[in-house]
Structure formats: C-alpha cells, structure tokens
C-alpha cells in the first residue's frame, strides 16, 4: 500500500467510518476521488448507492456547486440515516470546478440541523466536511 493509500485508510477511520457500517454514497460521478472512495469502501462493511432502500449507518455525499440546493441534499441525507450518524460532505477544493463556499456549507448544515465538526483534505481535488446528525434525547418514562 502506498503512503497516500495509508493516509487515506487512516483518514477514513479518523473521520468516523467503522468496519461494520453500511455507507450510502450519493453524488458519485467520474470526477470523485477514486482512491479515497476505494479506501472507504474497503474500510466499511458495504458501500451502497443512491437506490439503497434501508437505513444506512453513514452517508458519503459528493456535492458540486451546480448539483442543486445543498440544504436540500443535506436534509435528504439525514433522512437516510439514524440519529447521531455521520454525513461526510465532499466538495471540490478552492479554485476547482464545482467549488462550494465554506460559508454556504456552514449555512446549509445549520439549516439542515447538522453539526459541523471539521473539514479535511481527502485528495488532490476534494475536501471533506464532517457533519453529524443530532442525537435525539432519550424519551423519559412516565
């Protein structure tokens, strides 16, 4: 495994992906960072596509400026997972085609009810923003 692949493997784990997870991938296209995607796929139990019809443990969302409304995409992603789940938003880096402003990401995440924890580089062309769905409070017994 190359140093770059080692870094990607380590990054997948540090971002919160776990070996037993089913991860739903949204927005896949020819321009994604294939090495990072392959590492995530090897690191988790299963990487499923947009047509998966069960609740996933996490979402890998590739998003470009011209992909539509980011808030809508994030709200849709929250409906695919349980409370407290990881949504990893991947956007092109500054200066690349499809770049999404950090302020737009922050605003969309807040509007969608997500907590933004950190942003990291996941390759030459892509940056990842780790978002987490809120955990609902445990229901009290009466």
Folded structure, characterized:
With 142 residues, this protein is of the alpha/beta class. The chain is built from four helices and six strands, in the order H-E-H-E-E-H-E-H-E-E. Strands 2-1-3-4-6-5 form a six-stranded mixed beta sheet, sandwiched between helices. Helix 1 (3-14) packs across helix 2 (34-43) and helix 3 (70-78) packs across helix 4 (102-111). The N and C termini lie far apart (55 Å).
Descriptive labels:
142 residues; alpha/beta; six-stranded mixed sheet; 4 helices; 29% helix
List the helices and strands and how they pair.
Blueprint: H1 3-14, E1 22-26, H2 34-43, E2 46-48, E3 56-62, H3 70-78, E4 81-92, H4 102-111, E5 115-121, E6 126-132
Parallel strand pairs: 1-2, 1-3, 3-4
Antiparallel strand pairs: 4-6, 5-6
Helix pairs in contact: 1-2, 3-4
Instruction: Encode the helix/strand succession as letters.
Output: HEHEEHEHEE
**Physical arrangement of strands within the biggest beta sheet:** 2-1-3-4-6-5
Overall geometric form? globular
Uncertain residue segments: 137-142
Q: Given the structure, what is the number of helices?
A: 4
Gyration radius, rounded: 15 Å
Beta-strand content estimate = 25-35%
Q: How many β strands by DSSP?
A: 6
* Helicity level: 25-40%
Described by strand count, sense and barrel closure, the largest sheet is: 6 strands, mixed
Give the CA-CA distance, first to last residue. 55 Å
Q: Indicate the structural class.
A: alpha/beta
Overall pLDDT: 89
